[in-house]
Design brief:
alpha+beta, 3-stranded antiparallel beta sheet, two-stranded antiparallel ribbon, 24% helix
């Protein structure tokens, strides 16, 4: 999850994981109240990734789906 660490997660950890061979990276973006999914590095001028919002069912891995609203339900709203 990321609030204060979002910039570090997005700009340092994400590229490190993807370059290291992790096939799929999720960032729980508390600031905007959404889930970000990346399977490749965005270009320097791209937002990249896919965004899933509360109320959406996110396609998961190995036939498991994620209810984004439930995932975000108990996160502090003061961080958004």
């Amino acid at each position: 999850m990321s609030d204060s660490s979002y910039d570090h997660d997005r700009n340092v950890k994400l590229p490190t994981y993807l370059r290291g061979g992790v096939p799929l990276v999720w960032i729980v973006n508390i600031r905007q109240g959404l889930l970000e999914e990346y399977d490749q590095l965005p270009g320097p001028d791209e937002v990249g990734g896919r965004r899933y919002y509360p109320g959406e069912m996110m396609p998961g891995v190995e036939d498991v789906t994620v209810d984004v609203g439930m995932l975000l339900a108990n996160l502090p709203t003061s961080a958004r």
